[in-house]
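Summary: Need help interpreting a holo structure output

Steps to reproduce:
1. Submit the protein chain below together with the SMILES for 2-acetamido-2-deoxy-beta-D-glucopyranose.
2. Request a joint structure prediction with the ligand placed.
3. Inspect the structure token block that comes back.

Expected: a single structure record containing both the chain and the bound molecule.
Actual: see attached output.

Input attached:
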Amino acid sequence: MLPPTMDSKIYGAVYIFMLFIAFMNVNALQSTQISSNSVLVALLDSHYTELSELVEKALLLQTLEQAVTHHNITIFAPNNEALERQMDPEFKRFLLEPRNLKSLQNLILYHIIPGRVGSHNWPGDGDAVVHHSTLCVGESDNRLPIMKMNSGEKVVGGVAKVVRPDDVIRPDGLIHGIERLLVPQSVQEDFNRRRNLGSISAVLPEGAPVVDPRTHRLRKPAGPAPAGSPPALPVYDAMAPGPSLAPAPAPGPGGAHRHFDGESQVKDFIHTLLHYGGYNELADILVNLTSLATEMGKLVSEGYVLTVLAPNDEAMAKLTTDQLSDPGAPEQIMYYHLIPEYQTEESMYNSVRRFGKVQYDTLRLPHKMVAEEADGSVKFGQQEESAYLIDPDIYTDGRISVQGIDGVLFPTTVIPSSETKVSPPVAPKVVTKQRRGMFFFGKKVL
Ligand SMILES: *[C@@H]1O[C@H](CO)[C@@H](O)[C@H](O)[C@H]1NC(C)=O
Ligand SMILES: *[C@@H]1O[C@H](CO)[C@@H](O)[C@H](O)[C@H]1NC(C)=O
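--- attached output ---
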């Protein structure tokens, strides 16, 4: 028998140990960095605002964040109409009661398939119904049937028409817009039990689809991309090789489709920078490094979008000669400040606020840019090598976005990625980590 003091000491130690474990878990979760290009980030920024709100209320963000680090997801997103007007208010109240959190979670997870099912993976006319397991593991039969009606309409869960197939496409998943909520059996039962009125239902799945025992194979090739949709190739494939490599191949006949006048958009934003004031160094570099401006113009012409993190003059003045003397160094520095996505101050702030840390691809492969929320703003980079977003939305035209920052950023760590991406088009000649502000350069630096 242990003396009582000993006893409580042991409990104390166990308690501290438990706290430690809890702390480690929190850290483990926080250290996942979601890609800004994730379908999850896109969902929260999409017009599926009611669904996004439910996902947040269901406390599912971390679960889904983990999911997309391991596999693609396909989200069947009920549109706002379905969640606002068409849903039984009593059912909605039920879902939002804290004690029914599990039901809300199951309901949402029932709309998500742990895999990539694009509209071209859909069964064809008259093909068999295909069943996909969902993330709703709480459901005894969690398989969601997808099928195509004779009318040509795509239907999911036996009842919900897909009104916006492939509405959002991202590297780690996609979103199909559907016109009604899917209610898994268990949630329906919970709801009925709660209000003790077994005969009344919320939004019921009806008429389970009949399984056609024929082969399940997709027949239709993917249709032509809708106008204005993003280019099919990743941006890196469209980029000219860097200055250290072979010269860019001459554009082939009938090569790129030119949807946009990227060159004049680039000129336009450089002028805007000049008029804005405080960004003359950067504007100069862009004017002088014609290859860079040309490259940007070409990418935009081909349908790619860009976010430019623009260091202000004070930040540029702190660059050292060492940092700039290597051949191609200014280009390398600039490429690291180009994100191949269209982000505004609001969209970036929303992402970092929701996810803590977000990782952006840059045109300087394979280096990523990490961003987090700090002091009510977005902070890029890590530790002392960081810069705040100080001048939001200097230029935003829907394809090019320019955000003013107060530091020049350098890649510090290459985030290891399990999936091997396109090999870097530029030799990763890293401008070694330098402390800023050691050698001041009062004047022009180039
Ligand atoms: C998602 O799907 C794409 C295309 O099939 C694939 O290249 C990628 O590796 C997948 N991502 C994950 C995290 O499995
Ligand atoms: C750009 O080129 C002009 C003319 O050659 C030169 O005077 C200026 O210093 C250059 N600016 C930068 C930032 O390289």
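--- end attachment ---

Reviewer comment: The chain has a mean pLDDT of 76. The chain has two domains: 31-195, 235-243+259-405.
Status: needs-info
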